[in-house]
UniProtKB/TrEMBL annotation:
InterPro entries hit by this protein: AAA+_ATPase, ABC_osmolyte_uptake_ATP-bind, ABC_transporter-like_ATP-bd, ABC_transporter-like_CS, Gly-betaine_transp_ATP-bd, P-loop_NTPase
Tree of life domain: Bacteria
Official protein name in the record: Glycine/betaine ABC transporter ATP-binding protein
Xref: Gene3D superfamilies: P-loop containing nucleotide triphosphate hydrolases
Native source organism of the sequence: Streptomyces roseolilacinus
Family per record: Belongs to the ABC transporter superfamily.
ABC transporter domain span: 35-271
Pfam families documented for this protein: ABC_tran (PF00005)
Record-linked NCBIfam families: proV
An example Gene Ontology molecular-function term: ATP binding
Assigned keywords, A-Z: ATP-binding, CBS domain, Nucleotide-binding, Transport
UniProt-listed GO biological process terms: glycine betaine transport; response to osmotic stress
Length: 354
């Protein structure tokens, strides 16, 4: 039986984290569980940071947890490895019950299976870049020669070759961030948990680091959970995004689903300024081919964005762009469709939100 293809990395069901006195009475009490945050606080002195949240993190995806400050992102992600103890619900990693783990299995979980990359990486100031990267391996008991060799490979992978012998204080913020990333990668965890790793960086370096994460993800296919309050960052790095508000997930979907089919007014408002043509794909925007369509227009794969199709259409003199996969034409996008997406007047025909 093949369970690996279907077992999610994290399986989370009805998870709650309530802070405050007698917190565990809140999830099970219908009179309290649905109260707005301020009313709950007034009535009980409690804050429900995570409320009845269920989702799977699939193998190999970048799963983004996004929301405004205070929406519960950090609490939720810390619950995954019980850095914060959930109040109720169930939580599995690869089918193993995380809530049943004892201290040593939890340490093992955090060290080898789900490593956290924090905003402030906590680099060791008196150690070289190489030794900082090797540190996690040292804790795992890997011998000196091997850990330095493995660490050198990751230093190179994150673009720091030549800086191995510097100390963290001799690096820029972005370079320090890369050291932290290399250190997390070196211990080869099954899943990397990023807590707003780039929010302290200036915008250009931040963009670099986002691209780095996407590149590493493509090369390694490693599962990542990524917290951010920045919508642009979420759209750039996320395969799927869980948008949180007041402790709940208000929508969970691909960037295209979130932007193309917002679940409610809150999400619609959140994504209002996102250029739809950069997120909506031609797979969603296309219409079936008709007999009168020229069969020789420019061709794009279904994952191409509408923005790319506009460029192709412009170069092709305005003929419909064909959407082609494995040599088969799935449909076409004509200039009218493309303009409709940009103007937001054509609701993407395809997918509803997950
Ligand atoms: N230890 C705690 N005790 C009481 N309330 C807490 C505690 N930690 C967090 N909270 C509250 O839980 C809610 C969610 O906080 P959390 O830090 O998870 O939000 P966040 O979305 O990560 O915010 P930010 O983007 O500002 O880090 C907030 O209302 C916060 O005040």
């Amino acid at each position: 039986m093949n369970t690996t293809a279907t077992t999610p990395v994290f399986g989370v069901r009805n998870l709650w984290k309530v802070f405050g006195p007698r917190a565990d009475r809140v999830p099970g009490d219908p009179l309290l569980a649905d109260l707005p945050q301020a009313d709950l606080r007034a009535r009980t002195g409690c804050t429900a940071a995570v409320r009845d949240v269920s989702f799977d993190v699939r193998k190999g995806e970048v799963f983004v947890v996004m929301g405004l400050s205070g929406s519960g992102k950090s609490t939720l992600v810390r619950c995954l490895t019980r850095l914060i103890e959930p109040t109720s619900g169930t939580l599995e990693i690869d089918g193993d019950d995380v809530l049943a783990m004892d201290g040593s299995r939890l340490r093992e979980l955090r060290r080898r299976r789900a490593a956290m990359v924090f905003q402030h990486f906590g680099l060791l100031p008196h150690r070289s870049v190489l030794d900082n990267v090797a540190y996690g391996l040292e804790i795992q008991g890997v011998g000196r020669a091997e850990r330095r060799a493995r660490a050198a490979g990751f230093v190179e992978k994150v673009g720091l070759a030549g800086l191995e012998h510097r100390r963290p204080g001799q690096l820029s913020g972005g370079q320090q961030q890369r050291v932290g990333l290399a250190r997390a990668l070196a211990v080869d965890p099954e899943v990397l948990l990023f807590d707003e790793p780039f929010s302290a960086l200036d915008p250009l370096i931040r963009r670099d680091m986002q691209e780095e994460v996407v590149r590493l993800h493509r090369e390694e296919g490693r599962t990542m959970v990524f917290i951010t309050h920045d919508l642009g960052e979420a759209l750039r790095v996320g395969d799927r995004i869980a948008l949180m508000r007041d402790g709940r997930i208000v929508q969970l979907g691909t960037p295209e689903e979130i932007v193309g089919a917002p679940a409610d007014d809150y999400v619609r408002d959140f994504v209002r300024d996102v250029p739809r043509e950069q997120v909506v794909t031609v797979r969603t925007a296309m219409r079936p081919m008709r007999a009168d369509d020229a069969g020789n227009g420019p061709a794009l794969p279904p994952g191409a964005t509408v923005s790319e199709a506009i460029t192709a259409a412009a170069h092709g003199g305005g003929t419909p762009v064909r959407v082609v996969e494995n040599g088969r034409c799935l449909g076409v996008v004509d200039p009218q469709t493309l303009l409709g997406v940009v103007a937001g007047v054509t609701p993407p025909a395809g997918k509803a939100a997950a």
